[in-house]
Design brief:
- There is one protein chain.
- This protein is mainly α and about 210 residues long.
- The protein has a domain of about 150 residues: Tetracycline Repressor, domain 2.
- About 75% of the residues lie in helices and about 0% in strands.
- α1 packs across α2, α1 packs across α4 and α5 packs antiparallel against α9.
- The longest helix is centred in the middle third of the chain and has 28 residues.
- About 25% of the residues are buried.
Length: about 210
């Protein structure tokens, strides 16, 4: 995970949110008090309440920020103008974002714990880490099937096939570089199994030499 958050450039409110995310993801939402948050940012409880009504409002702010980060990352993906090169790049780029962006890593840890205690958190977990990726991948494979590049099978099944290892390895105790290397091999193998016409393999070779 990249520690890509610069604390020195944060406002007081941003520092409170960031410290809360770290504490919530480590200890769980219920176990963290506003006093613990205040101590983490060297502030008094009174300053916390100048920016937030309560601890729940801090959690809601975290959810909003992380959902927007994910939407911004995927907003530029246009399934109607896909080719395989783009799919492979998109898969790896999105997964790298999920395992190296500090906010997303901490947010996933938070939701992984809270989903069993809070149905709303469980819904958000499924939306961001299951439903949204599978929906986006299904749309991309539908286009590739129409182009004749990918075999005519259920695009949702293809989406599940390529995404399942991404979902599994995100929980593995492995270095990010090792995980990404394995997943790159998985995407390459998937491509050769999903290609509808062997003539496209020649085209792939040309792509890779560019």
């Amino acid at each position: 995970m990249d520690n890509n958050t610069d604390n020195t450039k944060m406002t007081t409110k941003e520092a409170i949110v960031y410290e809360s995310l770290k504490l919530f993801s480590t200890n769980g939402y219920d176990a963290v008090s506003t006093r613990m948050i205040a101590k983490g940012v060297n502030l008094s409880d009174a300053v916390i309440y100048k920016h937030f009504k309560n601890k729940r409002e801090i959690l809601d702010t975290i959810v909003t920020i992380c959902k927007e980060k994910y939407r911004a990352k995927t907003a530029a993906i246009a399934p109607d103008s896909m080719d395989w090169k783009m799919v492979e790049q998109i898969c790896m780029d999105i997964f790298k974002f999920q395992v190296t962006d500090e906010w997303m890593v901490l947010f996933r840890k938070l939701l992984t714990v809270e989903q069993y205690k809070n149905p709303e958190m469980g819904k958000i977990f499924r939306e961001i880490w299951i439903d949204a990726p599978l929906e986006k991948l299904s749309s991309m494979f539908s286009v590739l099937i129409e182009q004749g590049y990918v075999k005519k099978v259920n695009p949702k099944v293809l989406a599940t096939d390529i995404y399942a290892p991404f979902f599994m390895y995100r929980s593995a105790e492995m270095a990010d570089e090792e995980i990404l290397k394995i997943l790159q091999e998985h995407v390459t193998n998937f491509r050769y199994n999903a290609i509808a016409d062997e003539s496209y393999l020649i085209m792939d070779e040309k792509y890779r030499r560019k």
